[in-house]
Write a structure and sequence with these properties.
- This protein is an all-beta fold.
- Helices cover 2% and strands 66% of the residues.
- The strands form three sheets. It has a 20-stranded antiparallel β-sheet that branches.
- Strand 5 and strand 6 form a beta hairpin.
């Protein structure tokens, strides 16, 4: 009868232990002021998707996903009695029921409702302060979002109208969507799109108010050849996020949000381009790039955000060979590489004397993110071999992240051991060997 049920799951556990060497000549950062640092993380995800056709013109879809994440970090400093301690717990449940139906000749209609449940807690204790660096946080939210989506095509015109009303713990938010596409012949099309969305705030914000985003974009599509496509997009985005100015969510990651009861507005204006070569004789590539200006509002005027990189660029290219083994099982061998070159992230200046007095990094957020880190470059490499069997297949892959071992700056900070401002770099070369089975 056409029904289908898919079940999936993903589980993982990782740990990292640092033990300070006894040779003091090897101590080159404040990390060596800790006797040991232990980090453990676990994650799990399970879900399902059920699909049932309804006569010849409709279908019912039910899907749900549950995920959990926990991470604990303990660092034992030599010059303080108390340990540094971070404990993060997150659980999320999302579910959706929707019904889709063809309304010939009036397009396609989808009706549905989505449920999101969030339960998260965070405790951060710092040895320097002798207690919690900020108050322990505990946040539970439930979001119910009924929605409708209608799509209709008439000759060269395509319309998409959607509306979602999201009922959060504190308030409800309207999330409209409009897309109009017009074909300029067989190879070209232009489209105009506008949509609004909400997203749960970070646990570091200590607020139940969601982040709000509105975006308008003008798009141009060009089918260069039968296997090659070009896309251009001019976009403008507006964000309303919890927090105040430089200390708001628009600028911070995994840091306590300053004044979470307030709201900061951010703007992004940019141009994005994409050239995609679909698989031809086993070869494919995707070349993309963007230029953008990202700012946030302050009483003194608009300032660049921490993530105002100005430009991004990426190239992914690969080759695949299809074949059969001696058991007549279909096989697939491939190799691909991904290169990224982006503008550097920004950072607020560090107040050296204040950092010395506090024995931790103190930023001058009042001046905004006026310092720029060096540009970012990274190359990833992947080899894989897949074998298809009756009812299931296996995939063996070797991924090498940052294969050139490039040193990319992550941030600058005050180093207590060296008593100076220094740079912390991102991860170096990381090989990952994996084996996956799909039923």
């Amino acid at each position: 009868n056409g029904q289908s049920l898919g079940v999936f799951g993903l589980f993982g556990k990782s740990s990292n232990t640092f033990d300070r060497p006894t040779d003091s000549t090897a101590w080159d950062s404040d990390k060596y002021q800790y006797s040991d640092i232990d980090f453990e993380s676990q994650m799990s995800t399970v879900g399902f998707r059920y699909l049932r056709p309804h006569r010849n013109k409709g279908k019912l879809e039910v899907k749900a996903l549950w995920s959990a994440l926990s991470s604990v970090r303990t660092a034992r400093p030599l010059d303080f009695v108390q340990d540094d301690f971070d404990d993060l717990r997150q659980r999320k449940l999302s579910a959706q029921v929707n019904y889709q139906r063809k309304l010939l000749p009036f397009g396609n209609l989808m009706l549905g409702v989505e449920l999101l449940g969030i339960d998260q807690s965070l405790l951060v204790e710092e040895a320097i302060t002798g207690g919690p660096f900020f108050s322990p946080l505990d946040n539970q939210q439930t979001v119910v979002s009924p929605f409708i989506d209608w799509r209709y095509r008439i000759k060269k015109l395509f319309f998409q109208l959607g509306f979602r009303q999201s009922f959060w713990t504190t308030d409800s938010y309207a999330e409209p969507r409009l897309r109009v596409r017009y074909a300029l012949g067989k190879q070209q099309a232009i489209s105009l799109e506008y949509h609004q969305t909400t997203q749960a705030a970070s646990i570091y914000s200590a607020t139940e108010r969601p982040r709000q985003m509105a975006q308008v974009s003008l798009n141009w599509e060009y089918q260069w050849t039968a296997t090659r496509q070009v896309n251009l997009q001019l976009f403008r985005q507006r964000n309303e996020v919890p927090g105040s100015g430089a200390g708001s969510e628009i600028n911070q990651l995994n840091q306590p949000t300053r004044l979470p009861e307030r709201t900061t507005t951010g703007h992004t204006l940019g141009l994005a381009a994409n050239v995609q070569q679909f698989t031809t004789n086993g070869w494919w590539y995707v070349l993309s790039g963007s230029l953008f200006d990202a700012t946030y509002e302050t009483p003194a005027g608009d300032l660049p955000t921490r993530f105002a990189q100005d430009f991004t660029s990426a190239l992914s290219v690969g080759k695949e060979w299809l074949g059969e083994n001696r058991k007549s099982q279909a096989t697939r061998f491939g190799v691909n590489a991904a290169l990224r070159y982006n503008g550097g992230l920004r950072q607020a200046p560090i107040l050296l004397e204040a950092s010395r007095a506090a024995q931790r990094t103190i930023f001058d957020f009042e001046r905004g993110f006026t310092e720029r880190l060096p540009n970012y470059f990274r190359t990833d490499f992947r080899l894989y071999f897949q074998r298809n069997r009756a009812g299931w297949n296996s995939l063996l892959a070797l991924d090498i992240q940052n294969v050139t071992n490039q040193q990319n700056a992550a941030y600058r900070y005050y180093d207590r051991l060296l008593d100076t401002i220094t740079t912390r770099y991102q991860l170096e070369l990381i090989p990952v060997l994996s084996y996956k089975i799909e039923f």
